[in-house]
Design brief:
The complex is a heterodimer of chains A (332) and B (298).
Chain A (H helix, E strand, L loop, with lengths): L7 E12 L2 E12 L3 E5 L6 H8 L7 E6 L2 E2 H4 L7 E4 L11 H12 L6 H8 L15 H13 L5 E5 L7 H16 L3 E6 L2 H7 L2 E6 L2 E7 H7 L4 E6 L2 H9 L5 E4 L8 E4 L2 H13 L4 E8 L1 H10 L3 H21 L1
Parallel strand pairs in A: 3-8, 3-9, 6-7, 7-8
Antiparallel strand pairs in A: 1-2, 1-4, 4-5, 9-10, 11-13, 11-14, 12-13
Chain B lengths: L2 H5 L23 H14 L1 H12 L1 H9 L18 H25 L4 H6 L2 H4 L6 H34 L5 E2 L5 E2 L1 H13 L2 H18 L2 H20 L29 H27 L6
Antiparallel strand pairs in B: 1-2
Chain lengths: 332, 298
């Protein structure tokens, strides 16, 4: 065994990074055990990408230490990336080269000489037919898949994926998630960054939720679920006032008017059983249902609470903040 | 991936997870591997091939046109004999090319080789492999200097061959009026062109620095040419004797001493030292900028 290997794939302690007046990452600590699938969640601008760039040595932290399989950039230099692969944000390649030429070049930089491996990873991400086309003509999804192929070329023990489904169409998202799940099932340590709760919930064992450069939550998915509020549903009926009156006698559910729609519409919160009983009662009283849909999953609601982004409108605001963060970083 | 492929793991090759940590460490990419990668990229770029082709082809019509002139360009160095002597014509072209063409041809690659990584957002792609910044820096530097040397060799060879074939290889009249026999003239013309290598390499290093610093290909390519012209202008002014030896335009004229009788090589040596100083300062500065830089783009 490597004498420096602590059993942790990633051990980041007290990491801080400031760009000018912006504190992009503020004293965060993250430990990822070897073999686990770890999620880093947060809205855009939360500091996820800055943290991952520091892990890859692209950005130097102002303070704190990051070790990868027991190695640190200060002590081991480029050897820190032994067994590590992945991509930050959207993977980028040379547009005037074909996909295969890009991968061959990256193999040179890995000093890897394994005939057949390149064709293997190209087939794995289903790019065999387009491998000899110039990357400049690739779609966004194809570049994402080429990024995964480039990562797998290194035969990593730790695969770092920064929002791998970002920018993909629904079919692309489904396929990318299936691929990541399959890679995780193969025994790789996976560090997955995302701002989609369902993506992380589906495949991750542990999760860190970041908010404005700090850790808002750290724990297992089960612990996160236990903190989640009751699910909420949007309800529209032919008689909302009567439906509200019916709820007054049922302390198991909370029914309020939808704050986004003052003229009609209700929001029902409670356990699934209680909500079902309430809806059955409405129907028994002759009130017709016009719509009954979940507003957000409990984990989504918790995510918005923890990151203080307040749902869709808040997330959009956070996107703007994230763009500002990126700009600050680039300027720096 | 297709939906079928994505959901049917048996339809695709198994994912190879590397074994757990052992004392065996993966190999590092050496300078040779990084250099091969840079050369492959350069060979794939249309711009690189166009510059090399231009270095071979362009001197031919230039030689033909000058040779066809009824009145030779008497007010330029060796212009008086350019229409009747192939060696004089090759030296006339050298004097013209040294002013701005050589810095431009050099900067086309050197000014872009670092900035293009920013343009394509590929720093993060190459720096997350097994090659550190130092090796990538030197690989790019060697590739750019190699390209510069190749451009100079092709341009010189094409010009000299075209001059000799189109105009002829008569004895050359030197700068002090001496007659130089054809064989010696050929050697001196080749040496004169070769003397451009130090300033061209210095311009290459300047372009590399501008490419790293500006992260902008346009600045990296155009700025060395502009700086070269400004240096020529400053060198032509009076009262600048103290700084003239340190200008990159001065070594570009050092070959004049080879074509006098007696020959003097002092300016060649001094010019080479000045070029070496420029190269070291530019490369050290560029290296430090790249090494300390946070890669936040891409």
């Amino acid at each position: 065994m490597d004498p420096n290997d602590t059993g942790l794939a990633v051990d980041a302690r007290g990491v801080t990074k400031t760009f000018g007046s912006l504190r992009a990452v503020d004293d965060i600590s993250v430990q990822v055990a070897a073999g686990e699938v770890y999620g880093v969640l947060g809205p855009n601008g939360a500091g996820k990408t800055t943290f991952l760039r520091m892990l890859f040595g692209l950005i130097r932290p102002d303070s704190g230490t990051i070790s990868v399989f027991g190695r640190t950039w200060e002590r081991d230099g480029i050897a820190t990336l032994d067994g590590v692969a992945g991509f930050i944000e959207s993977p980028k390649f040379y547009p005037y080269l074909t996909g295969r030429q890009n991968l061959e070049g990256l193999s040179l930089l890995d000093a890897a000489d394994r005939p057949g491996r390149l064709a293997e990873v190209v087939e794995l991400v289903d790019l065999t037919d387009r491998a000899d086309h110039k990357v400049g003509g690739y779609s966004y999804g194809m570049r994402q898949r080429l990024g995964v192929a480039a990562s797998l070329l290194r035969d990593p023990r730790l695969l770092v994926l920064d929002e791998p489904a970002n920018g993909l169409d629904p079919a692309g998202i489904r396929d990318m998630r299936a691929l990541v799940k399959r890679l995780a099932d193969s025994g790789l340590t996976v560090l997955l960054s995302s701002h989609h709760m369902d993506e992380v919930e589906e495949i991750c064992d542990n999760v860190t939720i970041m908010r404005r450069g700090t850790v808002a939550f750290h724990g297992t998915i089960q612990e996160l679920r236990s903190m989640a509020p009751d699910p909420g549903y949007a309800l529209a009926t032919t008689a909302d006032d009567r439906a509200l009156e019916l709820a007054e006698g049922d302390h198991r559910v909370t029914v309020t008017r939808d704050p986004d729609d003052r003229s009609s519409g209700l929001v029902v919160t409670g356990t699934q059983d209680a909500v079902s009983a309430y809806v059955a009662a409405i129907v028994r009283h002759g009130i017709q249902l016009l719509a009954f849909t979940p507003t957000r999953t409990p984990l989504e609601a918790l995510f918005f609470m923890l990151t203080d982004t307040g749902g869709a409108r808040g997330a959009a605001a956070a996107d703007d903040a994230g763009n500002d963060t990126d700009d600050e970083g680039e300027a720096a | 991936m297709s939906a079928t492929d994505a959901t049917d793991a048996t339809a695709t090759p198994a994912v190879h997870a590397a074994p757990v940590a052992t004392t065996h460490r993966p190999p590092r990419a050496g300078l040779g591997s990084c250099l091969r990668w840079e050369v492959r990229k350069l060979r794939a770029q249309l711009r690189t091939r166009a510059v090399l082709a231009a270095a071979v082809i362009l001197p031919i019509p230039v030689v033909v046109v000058i040779h066809g002139q009824a009145r030779p360009p008497k007010d330029t160095l060796f212009g008086r004999f350019a229409t009747e002597n192939g060696f004089a014509l090759a030296l006339l072209v050298l004097g013209f090319a040294a002013q701005w063409a050589l810095p431009l041809l050099t900067a086309v690659v050197a000014g872009d080789i670092f900035a293009s990584e920013d343009q394509h957002g590929t720093w993060k792609t190459v720096l997350t492999r097994s090659a550190d910044r130092g090796r990538l820096f030197w690989a790019k530097t060697i590739a750019a200097c190699g390209f510069t040397t190749l451009v100079l060799v092709l341009l010189a060879a094409s010009t000299i061959i075209a001059g000799v074939l189109v105009v002829g290889h008569q004895p050359l009249t030197g700068l002090t009026g001496q007659t130089i026999p054809p064989r010696t003239a050929l050697e001196l013309v080749c040496a004169s062109w070769a003397s451009m290598l130090p300033p061209m390499l210095a311009f290459t290093c300047l372009a590399l620095l501008l490419s790293v610093w500006s992260r902008n290909s346009a600045v990296g390519i155009a700025a060395p040419v502009v700086i070269g012209m400004v240096m020529q202008l400053v060198g032509a002014l009076g009262g600048v004797e103290a700084i003239r030896p340190f200008l990159l335009s001065t070594p570009s004229e050092a070959w004049h001493g080879l074509l006098t009788s007696p020959r003097f090589t002092g300016p060649l040596v001094e010019g080479s030292l000045a070029c070496a100083a420029w190269a070291v300062v530019c490369l050290v500065t560029a290296f430090l900028i790249l090494r300390r830089r946070d890669i936040t783009g891409g």
